[in-house]
Design brief:
Layout (H helix, E strand, L loop, with lengths): L3 H4 L4 H14 L17 H10 L16 E5 L28 H14 L3 E5 L9 H9 L6 E6 L8 H6 L4 E5 L5 H8 L4 H13 L5 E7 L8 H6 L6 E7 L16 H11 L4 E2 L8 E5 L6 E5 L12 E4 L4 E3 L8 E2 L9
Parallel strand pairs: 1-2, 1-10, 2-3, 3-4, 4-5, 5-6, 6-9
Antiparallel strand pairs: 7-8, 8-9, 10-11, 11-12
Helix pairs in contact: 4-5
């Protein structure tokens, strides 16, 4: 993949980010200097940032991409055991004392936002199992310059936390759901909870999230027969169903035979809904977005395997243990914080 060049061996991006984030973290200021080099599909984003004078060249990589989107993993733990994500016997987890504290999350996030990051997404593991999730959202949403605070969740315990999260400044939601059949849900996740996820989707709509994004990883022989059922969810509700190509991760026993390609999924939806129409995508968008005539919601396709979007990627990743990754698929990590016991 294109981004592998950023993840293996030294690069301008990795050296500059490590140096300047560490300086900022310990309180050493640096004068911003906006780079004029930006050759990806996000040129419009560049022009906007230059006009606002809010972006530092610290977050421009060696390919000229402006990294304005930070994903923060709040925990390695999850209350599901999805087969495509985790081995049946679980995964080795860092001791809780080695994970980022709330203060460290906020302090590091502030460094990135002050350098030009405008969107933060909270992930995990499962972010809603952190007891201080509402407090983290309140503090993050108050950072000057942050325009969007999002979260990706499995929805199991989300419903009862939604009102507080909404009030805390959480501005957008992605809820993962791979099947509309409870028995298949239990098989895939090795846990019960299908009804809880459905309730969370409906409650998110009720409290005002629009759209509610539903992430669906499509796997041949498991849920590829439900593609149109998911698309039907968009008829009367502000739901954006996001069909995701099955990707390889450590421990998920990925097999190309399970991959349902974007073109296959598009054909299935187009056959059922001939009025399917391509929508205008936002700069740095990873999804290909479509509308269906008469439907309140939309459908999207994330083509990680067959039509990757590395050239326009603007994402950075801060892991729960304080390590930093430029690419989800890259093996390299940068340690921002010293290895010492820290308490959540």
């Amino acid at each position: 993949m294109f981004l592998m060049r950023l993840s293996v061996g030294p690069s301008i991006m990795r050296r500059h980010v490590l140096k300047n984030v560490w300086r900022s973290f310990v309180g050493i200021k640096r004068n911003p200097d906006i780079s004029s080099v930006y050759s990806t599909s996000s040129a419009n984003l560049r022009d906007s940032l230059l006009q606002e004078n809010t972006f530092s060249d610290v977050l421009v990589d060696s390919f000229g991409r402006m990294h304005t989107y930070l994903r923060i993993s709040l925990t390695e733990r999850c209350n599901l055991r999805c087969q495509y994500c985790m081995p049946a016997d679980g995964a080795d987890l860092s001791p809780r004392t080695h994970l980022l504290s709330q203060d460290e999350v906020i302090r590091l996030a502030n460094v990135f936002v002050s350098s030009g990051v405008s969107k933060i997404r909270l992930t995990g593991g499962e972010p809603t199992i952190r007891k201080d999730i509402e407090d983290i959202c309140v503090r993050l949403s108050s950072l000057k310059g942050l325009k969007n605070l999002a979260m990706t969740t499995n929805g199991i315990v989300l419903s009862r936390k939604l009102p507080n999260l909404k009030d805390a400044g959480l501005s957008s939601l992605n809820i993962s759901l791979d099947t509309l059949v409870p028995a298949k849900f239990e098989f895939m996740t090795r846990r019960k909870g299908h009804d809880s996820v459905i309730q969370s989707i409906n409650d998110a709509i009720e409290v005002g999230y629009n759209p509610v994004k539903v992430n669906c990883v499509v796997m041949r022989g498991f849920n590829d027969d439900e593609i149109c059922d998911f698309a039907e969810l968009t008829r009367e509700k502000p739901i954006n169903v996001r069909f995701i190509e099955f990707m390889p991760f450590d421990g998920n026993v990925w097999n190309v035979k399970k991959l349902v390609t974007y073109k296959e999924m598009l054909h299935i939806v187009k056959t059922r809904y001939p009025s399917l129409k391509r929508l205008q995508d936002q700069p740095t968008e990873t999804a290909k977005n479509f509308g269906i005539e008469g439907h309140e919601g939309t459908v999207s396709f994330i083509t990680s395997m067959t039509e990757h979007f590395c050239a326009g990627c603007n994402r950075l990743r801060l892991l729960a243990d304080g390590n930093f990754k430029v690419c989800l698929f890259g093996p390299s990590e940068i340690k921002f914080l010293p290895a010492k016991p820290r308490y959540v």
